Amino acid sequence: MLPAQWDTYKRASKLEKLDKIPMAMIIDSPWIPGYLGIKHMDYYLNPDLWFESNLKIMKEFPDIIFIPSWWMEYGMAAEPSILGAKIKFWEDNTPSEYHTLYRLEDISEFPEYEVEADAFAALTLHRYKMHKQQILDHGYILPMITSRGPLCTAGFVRSTTNLMVELVENPEGCHKLIDLCTRVIIDWLKAQHKVLGNTVEGIFILDDIVGFINEEHYQEFAHPYLKRICDAFPKDWVKLYHNDAEVDACLDYLPDAGFTTLNWGKQKDIREVKQRVGDRMCLMGNVNPLEIGVRGTVDEVKEATLEVLEGGTEGDGKGVILSVGGGTSPGMPRKNIVAMLEALEQFNGTRLAQV
Question: Residue 30 has what DSSP assignment?
Fold first, then answer.
């Protein structure tokens, strides 16, 4: 993203009231190759194509803040690959992972990890090193470091189904695995920071598996580890949390974990989210990404966008960033992205001043 866009995003995340509501979208490898009509494998393995693809998107939509900015994102592969998960690559889809930790007690036999050299983490860091100066020379910055969260990574290493069962049947073993994943994530984020340099002022954590557990389990198996990650980085940084599964069990606790900004799914109306955490977190959402963002008509997209904006700005109008409820879904067409922008322009021009 551009420096001015990051400044806007930071100010919104710190709950400043802005003259205009900004729009930000999480874009990554599930959406970009399909939108541009290229093969996923080429996007991952051709460095020049990766760079030109991201540059093309940013120039095509200059009024959107793309999160996290120039993301070398191998689907879900990087974090679990550090701990030995099997990764499969496909021509026309993102990579998939398969767990290789068949018993929790085998954690003690894992070799020492080294994020700078392990699997797709190492390849990601190398790609950033290759293109960092080129990105800066085009006037863009790399302000965020990114990782899957502890439960998400643990689920990919052990299998999500097994992990859910073992939270009840073997909580001690789960804590050992989640603790290991948390250490990996902190080291992985710090390795990215080292490569990307002093334009970094934020972390971006994605953990949908938190949405599969209840409040009691969130407090035991998720919150302490998410807080450790936030606490490992400067207090004044932007800390974005993404979970487009259910957020009811974790919602009230996320600000105390240290997150400044929430990107959540379609399940919960923005009015309720704002009522519960809107004075403690910036809300980045939450137009339905699939039924509306991908499949909706232009008019349906505009209507849904205005509904989100009206709900999100009730009261003081602070701490709202328009987005879809999660990442940009594969297949979301240009016309619907433009429709969101047009609805936002309408809202900013006529309704925001009344808030």
Answer: T
Interatomic CA distance for residues 323 and 65, integer angstroms: 10
Q: Which tokens in the block code for residue 259? A: 């997150």
How far apart are the C-alpha atoms of 182 and 176, rounded to whole Å? 10
| Inter-residue long-range contacts of 71-76, CB under 8 Å, 24+ positions, other chains counted | 71/27, 71/28, 71/146, 72/123, 72/124, 72/127, 72/128, 73/28, 73/29, 73/124, 73/146, 74/29, 74/44, 74/120, 74/123, 74/124, 75/29, 75/30, 76/148, 76/152, 76/156
Considering just the CA atoms, what is the radius of gyration of the chain in Å? 19
Identify the pLDDT of residue 317: 83
Rounded to an integer, the average pLDDT of 204-210 is 98
- List, in order, residues 6 or more apart from 343 with CB less than 8 Å away: 301, 302, 303, 305, 306, 309
pLDDT, tens digit, 9 for 90 and up, residues 100-140? 999 999 999 999 999 999 999 999 999 999 999 999 999 99
Question: What separation in angstroms does the CA of 305 have from each of 58, 325, 339?
Answer: 21, 11, 9
What's the pTM value of the predicted model, to 2 decimals? 0.97
Please say if the pLDDT value at position 176 is more than 70: yes
Residue 261 pairs in a beta bridge with 240, 282
Can you give the pLDDT at residue 353? 61
Domains of the chain by range and CATH?
3-354 (3.20.20.210)
pLDDT mean over 155-178: 98
Nearest residue to 254 (alpha-carbon basis) of 229, 286, 287, 289: 229
Q: Give yes or no for a contact between 82 and 14, defined as CB atoms under 8 angstroms apart.
A: no
**For residue 355, pLDDT beyond 80:** no
